[in-house]
Amino acid sequence: MKRHPPEPVQVIKERRDKALRALVHGIPYVQFLKISFERHGDELTSVLAFHDDLIGNPALPALHGGVTAAFLETAALIELGWQTLWEEVESGRLDADKLSPDTMPRMPKTIDFTVDYLRSGLPRDAYARARVNRSGRRYASVHVEAWQDNRARPFAQGTGHFLMPSPA
Amino acid sequence: MNTDPDKRRQLARQFIEALPHCRALDMTLVNVGFGEATMSMPYADKLIGDPATGVIHGGAVSALMDTCGGTAVMSHPSGPATTATLDLRIDYMRGATPGQTITATATCYHLTRSVAFVRAVATDEDTENPVATATGAFTVQGISKGTKT
């Protein structure tokens, strides 16, 4: 059996980082909130960089509940989009170098999203990780948790249902 | 509590429009009743969630509905001192038409000594077809024991 040598690490990283950039780049609302994404293998962590525009209650001060909702929903949606894209790019069906708004798989659409506010969001950076509990042909269910200082003490969690894009 | 509608509206407006995130999203209070509030948010490029179509991000609609829900709770005749969102579920019916202002109306339809129950609906200029609806539970503090709810 013919064996291929493993790909050089830079080649793999570059391909995956390119795919991730193509997915998250250029969404104005994500940029406005200052959400970025860190990748370790296929695992994504969404990072919400704190800034004053995110404050809802200046007396506490605390993050606006709407910011928390938007952050969780974005983390869930990007995780779902990323899983699809990862498959396409790693299998070679899509070329990470040629990803453009025209060739990208279309994003799922949110059907509903429930946010559970566990404690108030502090005026500092927040992190979120999402888990796709089910991803079918038409519908997906995603759970997401967000934390700040302590991973074991989430300040919010959410569950959403998403409509998967119909095959082109 | 203050029963002059103009005064109530003015106080609520000053409060909301001082919240940094509400200012950043340009939210304005349209009307406030007793346990009911209407707020609007104009279309802006920074709210876009889908650059291909210009449709605003669901998160921006959530932020408007959350603020509007909290305002409805605070405007309840029982006069709660503070409120915070416990749980909020949003159902998205359709993408909002790009360029149009989003208007949300929230009703606090039941209030106990510790919890407020809220529903809300958001529309664009096509007011017959909702963009999103929401139901939520909010914490409340400062309701006196004898208050009938």
Describe what you observe in this structure.
The complex is a heterodimer of chains A (168) and B (149). Chain A has 168 residues and is of the alpha+beta class. Chain A has one domain (9-163): Thiol Ester Dehydrase, Chain A (Roll), CATH 3.10.129.10. Helices cover 29% and strands 32% of the residues of chain A. Chain A contains three helices and eight strands, in the order ααββββαββββ. Chain A has helices at residues 9-24, 28-33, 65-90; strands at 35-40, 43-48, 55-57, 62-63, 109-117, 126-135, 139-147, 156-163. Chain A has a six-stranded antiparallel β-sheet. Chain A has a two-stranded antiparallel sheet with strand order 3-4. In chain A, a hairpin with a 2-residue loop joins strand 1 (35-40) and strand 2 (43-48). In chain A, helix 1 (9-24) packs across helix 3 (65-90). The longest helix of chain A has 26 residues, at 65-90. Chain A is globular. Chain A starts with 8 loop residues before the first helix and ends in a 5-residue tail after the last strand. Chain B has 149 residues and is of the alpha+beta class. Chain B has one domain (5-141): Thiol Ester Dehydrase, Chain A (Roll), CATH 3.10.129.10. Chain B contains three helices and eight strands, in the order ααββββαββββ. Chain B has a six-stranded antiparallel β-sheet. Chain B is globular and about 50 Å long. Strand 5 of chain A pairs antiparallel with strand 5 (82-92) of chain B.
A few lines on this structure:
The complex is a heterodimer of chains A (168) and B (149). Chain A is an alpha+beta fold.
Top keywords for this entry?
heterodimer, A: 168 residues, alpha+beta, Thiol Ester Dehydrase, Chain A, two-stranded antiparallel ribbon, 8 strands, B: 149 residues, six-stranded antiparallel sheet, two-stranded antiparallel sheet, 3 helices, 38% strand, globular
